[in-house]
Fold this sequence. Notes:
The protein is built from eight helices and seven strands. The protein has helices spanning 20-32, 46-56, 76-89, 121-145, 172-191, 208-216, 220-232, 238-251, and strands spanning 10-15, 38-43, 63-68, 99-104, 153-159, 195-201, 258-261. A seven-stranded parallel beta sheet has the order 3-2-1-4-5-6-7, with helices on both faces. Helix 1 (20-32) packs across helix 8 (238-251), helix 3 (76-89) crosses helix 4 (121-145) and helix 4 packs parallel to helix 5 (172-191). The longest helix is centred in the middle third of the chain and has 25 residues, at 121-145. The two termini are 15 Å apart. It comes from Biomphalaria pfeifferi (Bloodfluke planorb).
Amino acid sequence: MSEPLLDKVSVCVITGPTRGLGRSIAQQFANKLPKGSLFILLSRNQILLDSISELILLKDGIRTVTGIFDQGSCDQNLYDNILEECLKNAEADVTEFQQAILINNSGTLEPLDFVRNLDDVCTISNFFNTNLAGCVALTSKFMQLFNSPSIKSKIIVNISSLSAVQPMKSWALYCMAKSARDMMIKVISEEEENIRTLNYAPGPLVTDMTNIACQNTKDMELRNWFEEQVRKKSLVECDSSALKLVSILQKNTFENGAHIDYYDEI
Length: 266
C-alpha cells in the first residue's frame, strides 16, 4: 500500500498562495500536515501574504514565513537566496523536516491573442520569464537546498492545465508555457529517483483569471464557452480542486510525472 504524502513533518513552499487556487491549497495543506510543518509562502504582495499567513497560523503547531518573490525577475540573487532567507527568518533548519514539498502555482494568463498577432518580443519574453524561466530556476534551487539526508522524501507539484495537452485558439503562449512546465516535471521524474512529481490540472476554476478569460480571449468561441460556464455556475470552486489534490497525494498511486486532471478518477 502506498504511503500517504501529507503525513510527514514538512517544509512546504507555495508560489502564488495569496489568491484563488494557491490560497486554497495553502489552507487545505495546513489542515493535513502535522505539527512542526513550515509553510514558505512566496508572492509579490506582502499584504496578501500576511493575510494567508494569519489563516494558516490558526492551525495548531503550523508555522509560516513569507517572502517577496517575483517569478518574472531575472535577478539571480533572488533565486539564489529566497528559500534560504525564508528558512533563516523562520529560525528553521532543513534538518527539522522529514519532507520537502514545492507547489509551482504562480503564473499569468495574458496575452490571449492569435499567434499571428504575437509580434512583440518583449511581451513574449516577459511572459515566459514569469511562467517558465522563473519556475524552472526556483524548482532547481528547491532541489538543491532540500537535499539533506533528514529529508526522506521530496514532492514537486506543477499546477498544470487542460491547455498543456489541448490547443486552445488565442491562448498560444499559455498553452506553450503549461506544456513546457509539464515536460519539466516529466524530465525530473526521469532524472531524480527520490522525488515524487505530479502535473495537476485543477479544472476550470472560479478565479480572477476566469474573469480575464471572459473579457480578453480573442477567440470568440472560447470566450463564449467561459462566459457560459460563468452563467451556469458550472466552474470548479478552488477549495474543491485543492481537496482533490490532497486526495491524490494522500492516495499516492499516481505514476511519477503524471498529468492528472480534476475530473479524472483516482
